[in-house]
Amino acid sequence: MLACSAGALGQAQTLQDRIAQCEACHGKDGRSADPKIPHIGGQPKLAVMYQLFFYREGRRKSEEMNLIAKDLTDADITAIAEQVARLPPPPPAAGAIDQARFRRGAELASGRICTSCHNPDFSGRQQMPRLAGQHEAYTVKALQDYRAGARIGTQAVMAEAVRGLSDDDFADLAYFLARVRP
């Protein structure tokens, strides 16, 4: 796997160059080795399109992603999203499962509206991303950003969904989502 580096942020010219930029950080198979960088394999096409659009327009902030996405055309966004959607989804996190944390995370997920948007198996649909198998650190950061208003969605649903949850709740929810088997 290529290391995510400043070299990956240069100007890509062809679609294959642009996809190589994705692979540099997110992995050739869409599975990131860095727990702070999301797995993108198996994400719904529309979810990828929305995020790339948000990055391109500066509505979602990430120095690296804003730089990469700023020159993407609508056709580039569609083609990249189609490529990503064809990648296999990540497997559940490996290792022994702490049953107490897993159950607590499952209870948090079922007590919120998570399954109504992200599917009962957390596989994602339409513009709602796949959560199953995602890195814990990435999921916790995303939830914190929604709570702080630093990350947007297509609607205000996520800010409402995380209202009242603590960082410990986020950790248990992310633990569960990383290990749930769709």
What attributes does this structure have?
single chain, 182 residues, mainly alpha, Cytochrome Bc1 Complex, Chain D, domain 2, 9 helices, globular
What CATH first level of the largest domain would be assigned? Mainly Alpha
CATH topology of the largest domain: Cytochrome Bc1 Complex, Chain D, domain 2
Main β-sheet: number of strands, strand sense, barrel status?
none
When the domains are counted, the total is 2
What name goes with the CATH superfamily of the largest domain? Cytochrome c-like domain
State the end-to-end distance. 26 Å
The best one-word shape is: globular
β-strand number: 0
DSSP helix fraction: 40-55%
Alpha-carbon Rg, integer? 16 Å
Strand content: under 5%
Q: Please mark out the parts with pLDDT under 50 across 5 or more consecutive residues, or reply none.
A: none
Explain what the structure shows.
With 182 residues, the chain is an all-alpha fold. The protein folds into two domains: 6-86, Cytochrome Bc1 Complex, Chain D, domain 2; 99-179, Cytochrome Bc1 Complex, Chain D, domain 2, CATH 1.10.760. It is 52% helix and 0% strand. The chain has nine helices and no strands. The chain has helices at 15-26, 45-56, 63-69, 74-86, 99-111, 114-118, 136-148, 157-162, 167-179. α7 (136-148) packs across α9. The longest helix has 13 residues, at 74-86. The chain is globular and about 50 Å long. The mean pLDDT is 92.
